[in-house]
Specification:
The protein has 15 helices and 18 strands. By secondary structure, it is α/β, with parallel strands linked by helices. A hairpin with a 2-residue loop joins strand 14 (298-300) and strand 15.
Amino acid sequence: MQKTNSIHKRCGVKIYDSLSGIKQNLPNNRPIRLFVCGPTVYDFPHLGHARTYIAFDTIARYLRSQKIKISYLQNITDVDDKIIERAKEQSISPIELASQFEREYHTFEKILHIKGIKYAKATKHIPQIIKQIQTLIKKGHAYKIDDDGYYFDISTFPEYGRLSKRTILQAEDATSRIDESINKRNRGDFVLWKFPADKSLTQGCIRDENIPELKNNKKIAFKIVLGEPLWRVSLGWGRPGWHIEDTAITEHYFGPQYDIHGGGVDLKFPHHEAEITQQESASGKKPMVKIWMHAGFLLINGKKMSKSLKNFITINDFIEKYPPETLRLLINQSHYRSPFNYMELSADQANNTLKKIQKILAILSIINPRTQSLGEGVKQKGPINVEIKKSLDLAELNFKEAMDDDFNTPKALASIFELINTMEPKIWKLNKNEAVTIKKFLVKKMEIFLGIALKTPKIPLNIAKLARERELCRTHKQFTQSDLLRNKIEGLGYIVEDMPIGQLVTKKV
């Protein structure tokens, strides 16, 4: 088969663009610049976070498997109303609270095998935030409300609402508490820089031109007043609005235009709409990104997840019952753009599916004694059967076509399960070469969805010794002793199954 170059492969990937509503070719830039909105760190990570971040990790893993380089950037919102309010409830510093839950977030990312991301904290990018706000002021897109803050005037951006398909007149539901002000020019205007609740701090330093936040990135004065984190900059004591954090960060690392912006569909309006409005107004360049990607809503038994409904599930809640790989498999069984409806029955089914795949790999390892030597009577190594080769080629083709078509993970997984179902009835007729080839295919493909290479667990020496003794008893028809040894093995946490070519020993799950 003739090899195709990486550019040709890249053109084969189509991604649904939320703005245009059509599937676009994956951009040809090297590397692909991908930004995904990160968490606001004020609570434990939950299934909503897992749904979005596992989906984009799977996408990044697939592209990398196709030799496509990615620069994956994610922000950390560590200054926000929710953080301030939660810190006040707990009588601790908002910086301390944000740091605590940022650590929790990174801990669970590791547990869920999410990696390859560069992180950018909002509080570490105050100079970049101020620079972009000053640009918007200079260009006439931002205005000041005394004793309140600087706001973006959405009437200066005629295309406001094109991502969410809303008009400026529909923007009244775009505001959050930090955006509320009776003095705004338009109801949908959003805050860029918020002055402190304690107005006395703003006296005498609102227009201090000697503040050096844009000169060689010198340290900016910082303090916490009445539980509110504040920075002293040329605009005055204050803190950034939510939307400006992201565009200041992406412009700093990617420039005013880049390839892909992702996030949950709940962020499309007002957050992503505001990002477009800010960045394109500041730079004068369009479009801000080539492709917008949005992961679907999370539902719990058909309802929105909420603490008041007592259906709020943290990642920790889930992994207390199931392995992290089960959560990744469960999420990838839904297309990233589709709503993800979590039900415990679905989690059980995904967990059973994972166990089945692990068992198939264990059987293939028996056929390949180089990785596990508990079986006997294995066929000698030989060429791959023509029908098996066809099945593998078809699975490879179907897998790639599914993933190239807007990362259709359910269809890609179906190609793997179809291969397993085809091979299972004839698995004991495979030779070593066939078993190794099939196993490599399954391990490589499932690593994209599970975040890890599924390895056949090593059997401890004492368990392997007991299994060999049991096999010897069976060979000599000493079935009572054989059963006693089976019970002993199972008492140590392992399961013994008699297979056509020997014993299959697996750890209890």
